[in-house]
Amino acid sequence: MADYHINRRIMIQGLAAAGGAAILPGQGFAQGALVEAAVKEAKLVIYTDLAVEIAQALTAGFKARYPGIDVNFFRGDTGQVTQRFETESAAGRHEADVVTNTDRQAKQLAAKGFTQPFASSHIDKYPKELRAPGDAWSPYSSVQFGIAWNSDKIRDSDAPASWDDLLLPKWAGQLGMQDPLQGGGAAIWVATLYGLWGEDRWSDYMRRLGAQKIRFGRYLEVRDMAASGEVAVHVVAYPSFTQPLIDRGAPLKWKLMDPVIYTALTVNLSKNARNPNAGRLFIEYLTSEEGQQLLASRAQIPAMPAKLPPVFASIAKVTLVPQAIELEAQKFDFFQSKIREFLVR
After folding, report:
1. For residue 229, which of 101, 236, 244, 279 sits 20 to 30 Å off, Cα-Cα?
2. How confident is the model at residue 10 (pLDDT cuts 50, 70, 90)?
3. Measured distance CA(290)–CA(249) in Å, rounded
């Protein structure tokens, strides 16, 4: 266990260790106690929105480091994963021990009492802006919003260089985008631009963008349409979702667009986890240097700055703008109405 260290300052809330010994909030424990308790539970269930191959790599790495813990995961889009976890939690069906999603969904789940705080012993190595108040959740990655384009159809010099470039007549019928009515990154992108630009500029932009005859679908569907050439440009594309396809030979390229909106990807411990120790141990693994390096090796963007791979070096050079989470919630009905009026017709 040379790469794994449990911090004696770690705060465990409501942990009933195997054998009935409770580890109380603020109580330290000897190195290896969490590992021992997790191995006694012998099982871990993860609900995740990570790509299947990334989830498989993480679970394989976790199982190799901690033999004896059987790991199962359910994979879906962020909205699907969060909805399933929330529905089951509300019904008292506590299947998942941990769930991954975004900071937006994590905040909602915490507010409803479906998750519980956990302070990773590695959290001090993460940027303060990604960390949750009271350690309500743990960041493990981040997503930035830009575009991707099919390099067989578009020369690099001709690719859109700004959000406004998407309004040019040549892109009519050539754009694909996640359906913002289904939530996800496209929806928060719409709301954040409203907060940044003001209603007049925003309304004019969204109306003209909607006139471009955009093809809508789920995020991965649109990404794959861009890779196959069904659309030329993927609007609100994430580098960490595009780069793996590039590495496998897909004719795609990506760039960030100013303003560069970002979201933190989070891992959350279920309030009523059946295997809480295994859940905590997985969070420790995912946020450790080993877990972060594994993400980096799979063309993901680790939240730990020291592990950012060279292919994503440009991300460190831009000014990132946080999502307008509160604004979206406050004006939810307004945005839904305007999205139907301007974009999804």
Report:
1. 101
2. very low
3. 27
pLDDT digits (tens, 9 = 90+) for 57-71: 999 999 999 999 999
Residues facing residue 263 across a β-bridge: 143
Q: What angle in degrees, to the nearest 10, is found between the helix axes of 184-197 and 332-342?
A: 100
CATH homologous superfamily for the domain 15-142+264-308: Periplasmic binding protein-like II (3.40.190.10)
Top-tier CATH class for 146-256+315-342: alpha beta
Q: How confident is the model at residue 78 (pLDDT cuts 50, 70, 90)?
A: confident
**pLDDT grade, residue 268 (50/70/90)?**
very high
- Cβ-contact 166, 235 below 8 angstroms: yes
pLDDT of residue 31: 53
> Would you say the C-alpha torsion 289, 292, 297, 303 has a positive or negative sign?
negative
Residues 18-44 as b or e (16 or more Cβ within 10 Å = b):
eeeeebeeeeebeeebbbebbbebeeb
Residue of 37, 60, 45 whose CA lies nearest to 99: 45
Global pTM reads 0.78
* Mean pLDDT confidence for 319-323: 90
Query: Are the C-beta atoms of 323 and 174 separated by less than 8 Å?
Result: no
Type of residue numbered 333: D
Domain boundaries of the chain, sorted by first residue = 15-142+264-308, 146-256+315-342
274 pLDDT more than 60: yes
Could you tell me how far CA 66 lies from the centroid of its own chain?
A: 25
Count of beta carbons in the 10 Å neighbourhood of residue 9: 10
Residue 140 contacts residue 291 (beta carbons within 8 Å): yes
Phi-psi region of 26 (alpha: psi -120 to 50; beta: other; left: phi over 0): left
CB 175 within 8 A of CB 232: yes
More confident residue, 298 or 116: 116
